[in-house]
Design brief:
The chain is about 35% helix and about 25% strand. It has about 400 residues and is of the alpha/beta class. Bound molecules: aspartic acid (ASP) and magnesium ion. The site of aspartic acid has 12 residues, from α6.
């Protein structure tokens, strides 16, 4: 029988009532003839609560015990979902990650999935089980310890199961009805996209659109898993939500399909560093060792052998960045006159695969911001994305005016 993966996020299983409602959706797919693998998150708020317990008990906690605790929220919803399905006469049972087993690396709290053997579940499907309810977010390490996949990791569990079982589709049920051209709370003209390409979704997810864990989109792209994002609160038709799929499956597309933003950015400038071979490695090596996620980088032209180096990183990593750079300076590996942090910036990005073939997108973006009197501090581009760093107070204005300028409220 064809397999379907259905993932229910925390808000979709937040109460027994909602679990019942989700189970009904599962029942509909079972009736269509699918064997269904249901991946559940913990009830909303539950994982935060567990993370809090761990921190209160042990500030410098043992990561293995952290995983043992925070993975438990999903065990509850998996069991409850299986019971609810059984009450509806749907043959179902729950599986914790280790029972499948979902094999991961031993990087506790940020483990990667290595393999999902399919024989256990397939044997039960062959026996008449119609729904395997699997606890998301968790797995087992080579050492036999429980691991978790990072916050939001149930999305990744779902996609990995879809890939392993060759599922027809992976439906992600959440509290929004799809992926939007931008955040509807900022731009009221934001439009729900019917389809979006993996590459675009990957950019949007890593730029802070919180619908899907970035890693899950990477996996879906690698294994060509059709991903659908849809709401568990609305009656659903077969083409509801947003389909995240390969570019070839998208007929109509604008040049720019999304405006993303991130409020929590900082811009750091090293003033007057020696411009010599190896200087970038000497700066960004220690930053990377310190776990600083550097995003945009500019090296200015140099004068008399010295130059300024500017980069951006998440605002909560500024202290770490400062520490690692000043330590590198103390070790004599780099030399700079000053290190200036600007923590009042935000990043706004335009994303679209159409940029590969159409020129003028950057110019239009810059003109739009100029017309609004917004100063651009740093620019970075990739094949399908243009990002600018601007003063945070202009962020909403920039998002709205770019959404208008690129006419994202309609398919052009
Ligand atoms: N419950 C976990 C979290 O809140 C995993 C997930 O829901 O995706 O991060
Ligand atoms: Mg989530």
């Amino acid at each position: 029988m064809p397999v379907l993966v259905m993932k229910f996020g925390g808000t979709s299983v937040a109460t027994l009532d909602r679990i019942r409602r989700a189970a009904k959706r599962v029942g509909v797919e079972v009736a269509k003839g699918y064997d269904v693998i249901v991946i559940v998150s913990a009830m909303s708020g539950e994982t935060n609560k567990l993370v809090g317990y761990v921190g209160e008990t042990s500030p410098l906690y043992d990561a293995r015990e952290y995983d043992a605790v925070v993975s438990s929220g999903e065990n509850v919803t998996a069991g409850l979902m299986a019971l609810t399905l059984q009450e509806m006469d749907v043959p179902a049972r729950s599986w914790q990650g280790w029972q499948v087993p979902l094999l991961t690396t031993s990087a506790h709290s940020a483990a990667r999935i290595e393999e999902i053997p399919t024989d256990n579940l397939n044997a039960r499907f062959a026996d008449g089980m119609r729904v395997a309810v699997v606890a998301g977010f968790q797995g087992i390490s080579p050492e036999g310890r429980i691991t978790t996949l990072g916050r939001g990791g149930s999305d990744t569990t779902a996609v990995a199961f879809a890939a392993a079982f060759g599922a027809e589709r992976c439906d992600i049920y959440t509290d929004v009805d799809g992926v939007y051209t931008t955040d509807p709370r900022i731009a009221d003209k934001a439009r729900k996209l019917d389809r979006i390409a993996f590459e675009e979704m990957l950019e949007l997810a890593s730029l802070g659109a919180k619908v899907l864990q970035t890693r899950s989109v990477e996996l879906a792209m690698r294994y060509n898993v059709k991903l659908r994002v849809l709401s568990s609160f609305e009656e659903q038709s077969d083409d509801a939500g947003t389909l995240v799929c390969a570019e070839e499956e998208i007929v109509e597309s604008n040049v720019v399909n999304g405006i993303a933003y991130s409020r929590d950015e900082a811009k750091m400038t090293l003033i007057s560093v020696a411009d010599r071979p190896g200087i970038a490695a000497a700066i960004f090596g220690p930053l990377s060792d310190a776990g600083v996620n550097v995003d945009m980088i500019i090296q200015n032209i140099s004068e008399e052998g010295r130059t300024d180096m500017t980069f951006s990183c998440p605002i909560d990593q500024v202290a770490r960045a400062e520490k690692s750079l000043s330590e590198a300076k103390d070790r004599g590996e780099i030399n700079y006159h000053d290190l200036v942090a600007d923590t009042n910036v935000a990043k706004v990005s335009a994303v679209g695969i159409g940029m590969r073939s159409q020129s003028g997108v950057a110019a239009k973006m810059f003109q739009t911001l100029r017309d609004e009197g917004v100063n651009i501090k740093v620019i970075a581009t990739s094949e399908i994305k243009i990002s600018v760093l601007i003063d945070r107070k202009y962020m909403e204005l920039a998002v709205q005016s770019l959404h208008d300028a690129f006419e994202l409220d309609k398919v052009t």
